[in-house]
Structures are given as C-alpha cells and as structure tokens.
Amino acid sequence: MNNLVVLPIIIPLITGLVLAIFNRQIRLHRLLSLLATLSISVVAILLMNQVAIDGPQILQLGNWEAPFGISLVADMLSAILVLTTGIVVSCCLLYAFASIGRERELKYFYPLVLFLLTGVNGSFLTGDIFNLFVCFEVMLVASYVLISLGGTKLQLRESFKYILVNLISSFLFLVSIAYLYGMLGSLNMAHLSARVAEAGQVGLLIPVSILFLIVFSIKAGLLLFYWLPGSYSAPPAVIGAIFAALLTKVGAYAIIRIFSLIFYHDPQITHSLIGILAGISMLLGAIGAVAYWDIKRILTYNVIISIGLILAGFASFNQIGLTGSVYYIVHDMLVKALIFLAGGTVIYVTGTSKIREISGLIQLHPQLGWMFFIGTLSLAGIPPLSGFVGKVLITGGTFQADYFWLGGIGLLTSLMALYSLMKIFMNCFWGNTELTPEMEKGSTRGLLFPIGILAALTFLLGLGAEGIYQYVELAAKGLLDPGIYIGAVLGSNPIP
C-alpha cells in the first residue's frame, strides 16, 4: 500500500478547513492555498514515477482489503490528471490574487477552491463507485457557492439553472449506483469489472450502463449542454477558468473510467453511442462558437467542442485513439485555463465582453494579445503546440476504428473553433483603438504572469511531446487492459 495516494485529497481538505477558521487572514489564505496546490503537483509527480516502475499504486483505507473496504487507486491516468489539476489551480490562484477582489476573498474563496480541488482529486483517485458519487458532490457543492459568489443578478440566475441540472443528474447517478449494487452486490470498481465480466454485459446491465452514460454526459456537457454556456460565463474569469478546465473533465474522466473498466464488453452499443454523442456535441458546440459575437459565449462553446473531441478518441477504443484522448485532456485543461484567463483579462480591462465594442488592444497590451493568440493556435491544433499532437492521434484512432465520419467532424470543428477564436483576436486586438490607459476599467498587473506560465506549458507540451509520451501511452494501455487495474486492487485475493 502507498500512503501517497491519499495526499492529493487530504492536503486541500485540511488546508481548506484551516483557512475557513482564519477567514480574515487573506495573506495566509493566499500562501497556504498556493502551497497546497504546489504540494499536490509534487505528490502527483512522485506517483507517476512509481506507477511507471511498479504499476498502479493502491491504498486500502482502514486496512480493509478490497472489495470490502474503500480503495484509492493511482494509475497512470489518474496521476497525470492530478498533476495537471495541481498546475492549473496553482496558475488560477496566482491570477485570483490580483483579480478576485477582497470582498470575495473574505467570503471563503480560497477554502472553496480547495474543497472543490478535494472533490476533483477524489474523483480521479477513488476506486469505489459510491465514493465517486461522494467526491462529485463535494466538488459540486463547492462549485454551487463559487458560481454565485458575489451575488450579481446574472450569477444568481445562472446558478439556479446550474444547481438544478446537477441535482437531477446526481439523483440519476444515485439511482444508477443502486441498480448496479442490487444486481452485482459490490461498489468496488475493480470488483464490479470482474463481476460484469463473469455475468456478461447483458440484460438490465445494458440500460444501467446507458443510464450512467446519461449522468456523466450531463456533468461533462456532452450533448445535454444547454446549461453550460450561461453557467460558465456568469462568474468571474478565474472561477470560469477553473470550471472550464476541471469540472467538465471530471465528467469525461468518469465516462472513460467506467466504460473502460466496467462496461467495456459491448462497445457496439456503449462506445458507438459515445461516438455519436461526441460528434453531435462537436458540431453543436462549433455552431454556437461561430454564431456568437460575445467573448464569454465563444469560449464556453469551445469547452463543448473539446469534450466531444476527447470522447471521440475514447469511442475509437484503440491504442492510438486512447493515447490521443489522454494527451488531449491534459492539453485542454491547460489551454482552457489559458484562454479563459486571457479572455477574462480582456473583459476586465475594457469592461465589456462584446467583440464589436473592442479593438486595437495589442497596441496597449501586446503580451496579452500574443498569449491569447498562442492559446488560439493550440486549441485549433496548429503545430508545434500541444493541441496538434492530441488531435493527430485522436483522428488517427477514429480512422483506424473506421469512424471516418467522427474523425471528419473533429477536423471540421477544429477549423470552426479556430475561426471563432480568431474572430476574437482579429477584432479585439487588431486595428485602431480609442482606448487609453486612463480609460481602462482595470489593470493587467499581476494577471499576465500565470497566463504566461500556461502559454509556456502548451509550447512545452507540444515540443516536448516525446518526453511525456511514454506516460500517456502507459495510461492508454491501462485503459485497454483493465486486468492491470483489477490485479492491482484485488491482488491475489480470490474474488468473492
């Protein structure tokens, strides 16, 4: 057993509880929250190296052997995502120091971010499907407060829709777990996988698997995404960046985990359905991104395109496609944070999100303009940036699986995403401007540094693809061979 596995969960949890007590010590909040996220990144790097050498790292809580106790599992996929989460939240916290405002800081902004991080990391590391539900709820409860923090009219209206949709999906999640437990008598995901393999994915297990897909599709913003554009554009830029980078990815991770570990026996039904949902989501998201002339709306519709692309690679269910999905989800977490923070800075400086009311910003803020341009090219998949590697692999995976239509949709919507983001860049940064430094609504002081870190990372992820490819490939191999996960969790114990 490896006690490191629990640290990405308990570090933000304990830090958040401590900060909630000393709620008026803002400097302490900033220091401890940043140290907590950086510590998580260090732990994740250690876990990745251990997984690469010894395989998935397991912690049986209370020393109860699986499947009777609660298992925490760090395989390569979960370790990579925990590392990326730590990096993204660290950058967002640096941005928040200069932008979120003292009023929100005093209303427990930093503890809430840490509690959300607890739920995100718990979702990535849990090996128990009921605890996956619990971690989802921890994450969502924190997000309910964050989305309404500040109490503007727009936030309150959108938070009501966001909370209602997630409550319905959480209820369906609980129903799905109840049916699965009633049929298979277990909550441990490795044990469930063995039970499904033994019984066969037939009968009621097929509708239950589809019910799980509906639940996670809602949470990931896959097809049933009508709640997402408004909800993610209502809060301040840094909160929107955290939501776009993390929350939908947890939903995508849940689909990948459940349908590669438990419900992988009948891909003609489940994975084909995932491919169809991914294709439709990419098309509808791209249409929305192209149609709007509002920075917030364009950015949020690009979130939907990316979720569809990630799951298109998973739907192919081959080594190339899965490697592309894992690579692209890491890329997208970093670049979505970059784009949302850069776009939020434009709005913060100008006081408007309407593209037609902004022009010539590159004359006053060239660094901001070129960093936004880097994020645009990366999301579109232009080499040598990180998006190129993931999209090439995903497209190759869909073609290898004879899903030519799905690969074609991915390429088409990538061009539409490029057009939508270039629309922001060409209209907001190019041309003449009547804006002067005295007329600006806010300063970029302290805001460009975290954006610059994310822009540098998308370069490194593209140029240094060979260095991290071995880890991503190991993650994909683990998804294709659930026996690795099952063997690590259950060990040599006979399956009851």
Kindly describe this structure.
This protein is an all-alpha fold. The chain has one domain (3-489). It is built from 20 helices and two strands. It has helices at residues 7-21, 26-54, 76-99, 102-106, 109-125, 129-148, 153-184, 189-199, 205-220, 228-233, 237-261, 270-291, 295-316, 319-350, 366-380, 386-400, 404-428, 448-463, 465-480, 482-490, and strands spanning 57-60, 71-74. Strands 1-2 form a two-stranded antiparallel sheet. The mean pLDDT is 90.
Overall 3D shape: globular
> Would you tell me the structural class of the helices and strands?
mainly alpha
Q: What is the chain-wise order of helices and strands?
A: HHEEHHHHHHHHHHHHHHHHHH
In whole angstroms, the N-to-C terminal distance is 21 Å
**How many domains, in number, for the residues?**
1
- Helix fraction, binned, reads over 70%
Task: Tell me the Rg in angstroms.
Answer: 22 Å
Number of strands: 2
Give the amount of beta strand, in percent: under 5%
Unreliable segments (pLDDT under 50, ≥5 consecutive)?
A: none
Strand order of the largest sheet: 1-2
Enumerate how many helices there are, as a single number: 20
Major sheet characteristics = 2 strands, antiparallel
Mean pLDDT: 90
